[in-house]
Design brief:
This protein has 196 residues and is mostly helical. The protein contains 4 helices and no strands. The longest helix is centred in the first third of the chain and has 77 residues, at 25-101. Helix 1 (5-21) runs antiparallel to helix 2 (25-101) and helix 2 packs antiparallel against helix 3 (109-183).
Length: 196
């Protein structure tokens, strides 16, 4: 485990406290325990912030993947719709060629109805393909928005957890400090030296 500069600073600050108590081994041990609690709170706070940041980065990455998937889904839907139009045009051309070979007037009656039905079916298939792609792409975009919100929430939760750890550690230290002051194991005359 690597000691961060902040933890080293807390240890350095705790050394005079241990030395200044002057109440023997028990006082020094109590001061060391209080300093260790303070350090533990600092490390816990750092860990919570790192955890929140990591969760935030993971959610941002997943959001980017979901957004890219949404774009790819829309592009694939457009490509498939264009293929449907090409296939419909080929089918329509084949119908006209067959009708012309049979000496049918392609601009009148049943021949015209068949062509119109083919064109309408082609347009409906292409529109359905685009619509389905839009629905899937919208779902993926909404998933991306949700993931971004989760990332922001994870970062906030990490920060709030870190502040909670710091406040809890400071509160416990203050309680122990007051206990020392009240018990006389750390004389009030030395209090300024302990805080320096």
């Amino acid at each position: 485990m690597t000691v961060t500069p902040a933890a080293a600073g807390i240890l350095t600050a705790a050394a005079p406290t241990v030395a200044a108590t002057g109440g023997g081994f028990a006082s020094g041990l109590s001061a060391a325990a209080a300093a260790a609690g303070l350090i533990g709170s600092g490390l816990s706070a750092y860990g919570q912030m790192q955890q929140g940041e990591a969760a935030s980065k993971a959610a941002k990455y997943q959001a980017a993947v979901a957004q890219n998937n949404a774009k790819a889904t829309l592009a694939r839907g457009e490509f498939e719709a264009q293929q449907i139009y090409r296939q419909g045009a080929q089918r329509l051309s084949l119908q006209r060629a067959i009708m012309g070979a049979n000496n049918l007037d392609i601009g009148f009656g049943t021949a015209l109805d068949v062509q119109r039905d083919t064109a309408e079916a082609t347009g409906l298939d292409a529109a359905t393909t685009r619509y389905n792609a839009l629905l899937a792409g919208t779902d993926q975009s909404q998933q991306a928005m949700l993931l971004r919100a989760q990332g922001a929430g994870a970062r906030s939760a990490g920060t709030m957890g870190a502040f909670g750890s710091i406040l809890s550690g400071a509160s416990q230290f203050a309680q122990r400090w007051n206990g020392w002051q009240d018990s006389g194991s750390s004389p009030r005359s030395r209090a300024p030296a302990l805080l320096a």
